[in-house]
Structures are given as structure tokens and as C-alpha cells.
Amino acid sequence: MTLLAKQNAIHIEQLRKSYSEPSVGDVHYIIKDVDLVIKGGEFFILLGPSGCGKSTLLNMIAGFVSKSGGNLRVNDVEVNKPGRDRAVVFQQADSSLFPWLTVRQNVEFGLRMKKTPKEEQRLISDRYIRLVGLTGHEEKFPKELSGGMKQRVQLARVLANDPAILLMDEPFGALDAMTRRTMQKELVNIWRETHKTVIFVTHDIQEALLLGERIGIMSVGPSSNITDIYDNSLSYPRDVASQQFYNLYNTIQGHFEE
Amino acid sequence: MRWIEKKWVSVSLLWIAVLCIWQLGAVVYGPDVIPGPWSTLKGGQELLADGTLTKYIGISFYRVLVGWVLGSLVAIPVGLIIGKVNVIRIFAEPFLNFIRFIPPIAFITLFLVWFGIGEQSKIALIMYATFFIVVLNILTGVMSVEEDKIRSARSMGASEWQILLHVIVPATIPYIFTGVRIAMGTSYMAIIGAEMIASNEGVGYLIWNSRLFFRTDWIFVGLFCLGFMGFFTDRLLGWFGKKVLFRYGVVSVAGKRR
Ligand SMILES: Nc1ncnc2c1ncn2[C@@H]1O[C@H](COP(=O)(O)OP(=O)(O)OP(=O)(O)O)[C@@H](O)[C@H]1O
Ligand SMILES: [Mg+2]
Description:
The complex is a heterodimer.
Chain A: H1 2-6, E1 10-18, E2 29-38, E3 43-47, H2 54-62, E4 69-74, E5 77-78, E6 86-89, H3 93-96, H4 103-107, H5 109-113, H6 118-131, H7 147-159, E7 165-169, H8 177-194, E8 197-202, H9 205-211, E9 214-218, E10 226-231, H10 243-257
Parallel strand pairs in A: 3-8, 3-9, 6-7, 7-8
Antiparallel strand pairs in A: 1-2, 1-4, 4-5, 9-10
Helix pairs in contact in A: 6-7
Chain B: H1 7-29, H2 37-49, H3 52-84, H4 86-99, H5 108-115, H6 119-143, H7 147-155, H8 160-197, H9 203-209, H10 216-244
The complex binds adenosine-5'-triphosphate (ATP) and magnesium ion.
Keywords (chain A): ATP-binding, Nucleotide-binding, Transport
InterPro entries (chain A): AAA+_ATPase (IPR003593), ABC_transporter-like_ATP-bd (IPR003439), ABC_transporter-like_CS (IPR017871), ABC_transporter_ATP-bind (IPR050166), P-loop_NTPase (IPR027417)
Protein name (chain A): Nitrate ABC transporter ATP-binding protein
């Protein structure tokens, strides 16, 4: 466990992001002086109000957005570009899936880029399509799928590349309550099977409590920061109706009402 | 009145009405000003009988096809590269936006001087007419590829070259197709202009030359040929787009029903 925890860990120190020119006197920071350590294999939640910079922080870890100061290391290597070790599940499946490819071809995309042998691609895509419950829909195009199914394709597509770290930006935000609940359960199962590090962005407190082991709270921007981290050691699958769940919910709710 | 809503009924009624108005015009203004349907048909027969019409249609069509295919073949890679490489785009965009206001016809004399009186100057003119339209459409297409698609491909390990080939090209296909289709129309306009000024064969030449004999019926034949040539090539292209490029989101505009 300790070895695993050291692997694929994320170290963030005094991390800053600004979109304004450094030469301008009064620099406007989106996030400022973020300190955070995420252990390998951990399910970490980033919770915060809209516009506080959750996506910005996630995109920096993904390597899509450059930092303006501080350190950001994954596996002890400074992040400066996207990598196969960090997969991203985007909020909008429509803008991130490839509509000209079938479900199977979408899932095999990363493997095809890597020139994995065809038969192996097939085995891997079969496995992850089954894992997300899309068996029988392999030959469909994304536009023939429902919102929840598209999100599953996204999940299968990143899992097929076997990334150590899963970065998820409000992936279930656009789904109806029931589909969302199913997807949340499946995600927990997948995480427990695969031991990947997960960073999951949401602004839904219940979702945060259902999924993560730790919940980092971001303050309102600008110059946003992670102000508090709550541990959530409730065992999975979690019971929304339990007293502990209710207590934790109130604590976090109270945090935002201050 | 259900029968009038049947498509073939309304379409044939429309055509009969058009023919009637046309015939009326011919009667009122005399066949020298407006040749009626019948005299146009006779004129057409005359031109068909000695083989000039088929020859001219063939020649005009050949010029358009060669220039248009070559122009598109050059424009597609150029457009993709201008769109993908920021540095090139910054330099090329003002230039493209300047050139696109200069219609091909304006270049006829210059092209004759540069490429000679033969086929080259005509084909070069069609290439010019095609090139800028296709490039500008591709630019729009490349610019509107969603960032999430490129980001997800990149984090699945795709190289810049693979991103161009497997994300940008397929995502841009509808724009390429639209560009190529519009360019077909401008190519016809360009070739007729060129044939009027500097050719002794082709549909443009027929239309222009008929004035010497005051054969307005031949002019009408020429106009109809142009209309049909454009109509059929466009339909053919539309059909091809719908059948072959369907998965890339190409829809045939003409065949689209609501
Ligand atoms: N490319 C950019 N240029 C300038 N400002 C930006 C850019 N991207 C984001 N911002 C700003 O950064 C701030 C944080 O944005 P971000 O998208 O990270 O918020 P968020 O916490 O993910 O919000 P939400 O929950 O609504 O998705 C916002 O004020 C936004 O205006
Ligand atoms: Mg966001």
C-alpha cells in the first residue's frame, strides 16, 4: 500500500495560475498558492462553487494549461504537457468523443495511436466496453447513444489506455438523477477494481460524499485556494440515509454557508 | 385538395407554369429577343446534329473538372497546414482575406499572359477559383474543431501529426466538402468567363459567339447546358457526400427534408 501510495502521487506546492500578462503590475490570479498532496490510488474530490478554478486546476494537472508559478509534480516529474499517464474525462461527451468513429473505434483510439496489434486492441476494447456496460452497442456512433451511454464511452476510452491517474471534470453533471446514480456506483466499482488515482471535480456535495475518500474544498475565486480537506472514511457502497453521511453533509454545507 | 400536395404533381405544375410564362414572353417580345421553348429546342437539335454541343459541353466540363480537382488537391493540405500551424496562419490570414475579394474573371488577361493562350491558362484560372474558397472553408473548419477533442487525443498519447490526421482532418471533412462544393459553382462561372474572352471552344464560347449570328436561341441552349451541368455535378457531389462521408456529419443540403 505504501509503495502504491508513493507511485502516481501528485505533489502541488504554491501553485498559481494567472491569465494576465506578468508585466502588468496588478496580477489577477485565478488560483493562488495551492498546496496539495494526493496519494497514489486515492479518490480525491475537488469541491467548490462555480468559477472558483476547479477546472483550471484539473487542466493544469492534465498538462493542458501551463502554470504561472509553483510546483506541480506527478510521479516526481514536473508536469509541462499532457501524458498517457493522466487521462481526462470531460464534462461534455459530445465535444470530446469522435463522432465519426463507432463506440469501439472511440475506445480503441489511444491503442491505435500507440500501434497496439489489432487483436490486442480488440480484446482490450471488449473488456472495457463490457466493464462500462455497453456490450451490444460497439458498432453504434456516438449520436445514436444517450447522454449516459456517451459518458460511459468516454470512461471506457480512457480506461483502455490504462492510465494511472483519472482526471474527471464534472463528468456526470449533465445526466439525469437516476443515470447519474448508476454511473457514480459504477465509477466507485471501477476505482476499487483498478486502484487508479482519481481526481473528481464537482460542485455537488452529495456526489462528493458518495464518491471520494477525501474532499478538498476550494474557496470562492479569484485567488482561490484549497482551504479545507475533509476525510470521508465511510465504507463503500455508501448509504445516503446514514447518520454519518448526514453529519458530514451538514458540516460541508455549513462550510459554504459561512 | 390533397392531390396538389403530392410532390410530383406540384413540381410538374410548376414546370408547366414556367414553360407557359416563357412561351408568353416569346410571343410578346418576339423570338429574336426571347426565343421560346420550341425554338430553343430546335436550336439545341441543330447544335447537337453537327456535334458541336456535345463537344463544347465535354470541353467545358473537362476544364472545370481538371482545374477543380487539381485546385482542391492543392488546397486541402495547404488549408490544413495553415489552420493547424498558428505562425503560418497569422501571416496567411490577411493575405487570404485580401485575395478572396478578387474574382477569378479579373485575372483572365493576366493568366493569358502568364500561362499562354492554351489550356493551361484556363485550368490555372479554375484552380485559382477553387483554391481560395476551399482553403478558407478549411480554415474555418480547423478553427472550429473542439478543444476537448484535441486535448483528449493528446492525453491519449497522439502525436501532433496523429492529431492532424486522426482528429483535425475527420473533424474538418464537412467544411472541406462544403468548400469543394461551392468551388464547383465558382469554377463554372470562371470557365465561362474565360471561354468568352479567350477560347474558340466550349459552352462559354458558344454563348459569346452566338451573338455574331444573332442566334439568341443558341445562347439559350448554352444557358440551359450550364444550368444542367452545374445541377448534375452538384447533385452527384451531394449524393457522394451523403453516402460516403456520412459518418463525418456531411449532409446533402439539397436532399435534406424537414
Ligand atoms: N482561458 C481563460 N482565460 C481567462 N480566464 C479564464 C480562462 N479560463 C478560465 N478563466 C477564468 O478562470 C476562472 C475559473 O474558471 P474555471 O473554469 O476553472 O472554474 P470552475 O471552478 O471549473 O467553474 P465551473 O464549476 O463553473 O466549471 C473563471 O473566473 C474564468 O473566467
Ligand atoms: Mg469547470
